Amino acid sequence: MMDEWTGVDAYICDRLLGSDPALEAALRNNEAAGLPAIDVSAAQGKMLMLFARMVGARHILEVGTLGGYSTIWLARALPEDGHLVTLEIDPYHADVARANIAAAGVADKAEVRTGPAVESLAALQAEGGAPFDFVFIDADKPSNTAYLTAALAMSRPGTVIVLDNVVRGGAILDPGSSDPSVRGTQAAFEMLAAEPRIDATVIQTVGAKGWDGFVLALVR
Q1: pLDDT on residue 1
Q2: Long-range contact set of residues 17-26: C-beta below 8 Å, sequence gap at least 24
Q3: 40 phi and psi, to 5 degrees?
Q4: By C-alpha distance, which of 98, 52, 96 is closest to 78?
Q5: Phi and psi (nearest 5°) for 121?
Q6: Which residues of 164-196 are buried (b: 16+ CB within 10 A; e: fewer)?
Q7: Rounded alpha-carbon distances, angstroms, from residue 186 to 143, 159, 212
Q8: pLDDT tier, 91 (very low <50, low <70, confident <90, very high otherwise)
Q9: Residues near 3 by beta carbon (within 8 Å), at least 6 away in sequence
Q10: From residue 48, how far is each of 56, 170, 191 by CA, in Å?
Q11: pLDDT digits (tens, 9 = 90+) for 25-52
Q12: pTM for the structure as a whole
């Protein structure tokens, strides 16, 4: 089944995405740098870009940069005066991301901040500024509720929040799971269900990244 999922992803990319030297180079650079291969797929990256374009995003927040692959996709959705802030805890990963972002020609739109995301989010809140129009959260899952809380505080009615990896191969169904990532994701579901300012659903996905899914949430 996994081979079929991967094959369909390849079909989609061949028909609808085509070759993208900058993004392909970013993945090669990530591999050469020893980063884990946990980036979104190409089809998912384009989905994020299209979502951001659909809402006319001018200010984007990303929690979890890794090597900047999804960052490049999102930065491409921005207008000329748009701005993206992406948060990465690992300084080495952040340096790889900055190089990839520069090579892709979007360094003028994407700012990589290094440090624990909870601290970086608090600093962003303290700075004030325009609310974010689009938020993509793809970092450590035990901190999902903290990230969602901060994202909501820096949103406006109409902001779209996407939270990745929320199905986890079906492990989300296990109420007795001891896996911190599963428990953090379950806590995110509980928070979203109780939050009156958010209208959300989950889209399950299969493909090159296996069986998973993402929350698609709209701030009221």
Answers
A1: 86
A2: 17/42, 17/43, 17/46, 22/72, 22/103, 22/104, 22/105, 23/69, 23/72, 23/73, 23/104, 25/100, 25/103, 25/104, 26/67, 26/68, 26/69, 26/72, 26/100, 26/103, 26/104
A3: -60, 160
A4: 52
A5: -65, -40
A6: bbbbbeeebeeeeeeeebbbbbbbbbebbeebe
A7: 11, 23, 14
A8: very high
A9: none
A10: 12, 23, 23
A11: 999 999 999 999 999 999 999 999 999 9
A12: 0.97
Count CA atoms within 13 Å of residue 11 on its CB side.
Answer: 7
Q: SS3 of 217, please?
A: strand
Q: Which two tokens stand for residue 191?
A: 């928070």
Coil, helix or strand for 43?
A: helix
Amino acid letter at 122? Answer: A
Identity of residue 207: G
Mean pLDDT of the chain: 97
Residue that is written with structure tokens 């980036």 in the block? 39
Tokens encoding 83: 């701005």
